[in-house]
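Example 400, ligand heme C.
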Amino acid sequence: MNFDSRDRLWIYLSGTAILVITLWIYFVYFRPEWKDYQSDFRDVVAKRFGPDRAREIPSGIQQVWAKDLNRVDRCVTCHLSAEWKGLENAPEPFKSHPREILTKHPVSKYGCTICHGGQGYATDTATAHATTLEHWEEPLLGKELATSYSVSDRKALMQINCNICHRYDAQTPGADFINDAKQLVKQKGCRACHTINGRGGVIGPDLSYVGDKSTEQYDYSHLLGVKSVFAWHVAHLKNPKSMSPESVMPTFGFDSHQAQSLAMLVMSWKRSDLPITYIPGTALGDRPTPEEIAKEQQMQTGEGAFFAKKTCFICHDVSTLGIESATKIGPDLANAYADVQARFGRTLEDFLASPTGTMAMVLSTQIHLTDAEKQEAIAKLKIAYQKKLEQDAKAAQAKK
Ligand code: HEC
Ligand code: HEC
Ligand code: HEC
Ligand code: HEC
Ligand code: HEC
């Protein structure tokens, strides 16, 4: 074989071209995304703080090992300046992190995903934020998920994670949705039917660890739109029968904010395997307040003691016998003697012997009444009704 010098040159040139193209493809397609962020970050820092500071920036994959929490988070590979001052108005991922929250939860001990969710081991945005694929175990609780759940505050969903640790706080500064939901649980008396943190009724399921239920355990056949546990809870809280047609859970009339807040709260009720030092208030637990205890004791000794002892007071006032319910889930029983007749066309005796609706659930699952106790209830409700009539008559007199 014999090449002349023109052929040699041609072969040499095309070989070089192929090499250049290959390198270029490698550079564009296979150069990790984070390398670009790290070099952009150096530029940002050089401009603002000078080249010396920029040279101190580490390169390569960065990570935080939160040992006690058993997590390795590489988010800091791109979010390099989480603990820097002076980049508050820089673009993401270079912005300084809001300071106060990290003062209370230092990055070295907490990492990032314990609050934000996301895939800690990943080093590309799509996987780290877990937004490209449906049903990631731990999506970033950030703006994309908030949009798909129609939650107007794009940072709110993170509060689910705050409350895995802060579940025993009455209120947690910075977790407004969760705080609103905790108020509602008290006001509306969810514990009348549900056990929460070991305390409450048994008419509905125990909610203490309901956040551990998986997506597959919910029936989405009645749910319109996005099928997610969050959406199921929101729809169910707004109108329980729309998701569970046989449910005796009342429709409380929650607006969207209230239903979303409660959905976040119930989803935060998970078993946690975190060390106890990461769970504030564990020693205090979740106990009734002194006011609640005093009120109950007072009712135990009055004229309506029967309704306090048998715990009817959780859902019912018996206003003329001094029984006051915090929740008022059922009607005032001062009227029951006549009201049952008017509403159901049955006597009170008959109703208590074979109750319907919520009271069927109450008397079969939560409160057991012997025949003698049913007689006592009827006798007491007659007295309560008698008093009611007298009060009404007096009031009518006073008006004249
Ligand atoms: C490969 C680089 C990269 C990695 C790794 C990365 N991020 Fe980001 N992050 C970005 C960029 C770029 C933005 C701004 C653009 C955007 O919002 O997607 C951003 C924005 C964010 C935001 C604000 C936007 C929102 O959705 O609320 C949060 C919060 C966030 N990242 C958290 C994390 C957490 C937590 C991790 C680790 C699990 C992580 N990031 C890992 C590049 C990265
Ligand atoms: C203790 C919980 C907690 C930890 C740990 C935490 N963050 Fe945050 N992060 C927050 C809160 C709360 C905010 C929002 C503050 C606010 O309301 O502006 C926030 C805001 C952000 C934002 C801006 C989001 C936006 O939408 O503007 C980014 C990005 C972010 N964090 C990334 C990180 C990274 C990366 C780490 C780990 C180095 C981390 N965070 C660790 C609680 C935490
Ligand atoms: C891994 C568990 C954990 C997570 C997640 C967590 N915290 Fe905390 N938080 C703690 C612990 C532990 C303390 C320290 C409590 C103490 O000192 O008594 C604390 C302290 C605080 C404090 C100060 C308490 C006080 O009384 O001043 C606030 C406020 C707070 N956290 C808010 C939040 C918010 C908001 C989030 C979510 C963005 C969050 N925390 C996520 C464990 C956690
Ligand atoms: C009168 C009794 C009653 C009251 C009061 C009540 N619930 Fe329920 N709840 C039920 C029953 C029964 C079910 C099971 C049937 C169903 O799914 O609706 C249930 C189901 C639930 C579920 C679904 C549990 C699961 O397995 O996923 C949640 C969450 C829930 N309730 C939250 C609440 C909250 C929050 C409140 C207070 C605002 C409340 N409930 C008040 C009776 C009640
Ligand atoms: C978990 C909540 C709850 C508890 C506890 C409870 N009830 Fe009820 N009760 C209700 C609800 C809700 C209704 C209304 C049912 C309906 O309209 O179908 C009701 C209705 C009644 C009625 C009919 C009242 C009327 O005016 O129509 C009577 C009587 C009654 N309950 C008696 C009792 C007695 C006695 C106890 C205690 C042994 C008790 N209830 C405990 C929730 C409860």
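Summary: The CA atoms of residues 21 and 291 lie 77 Å apart.
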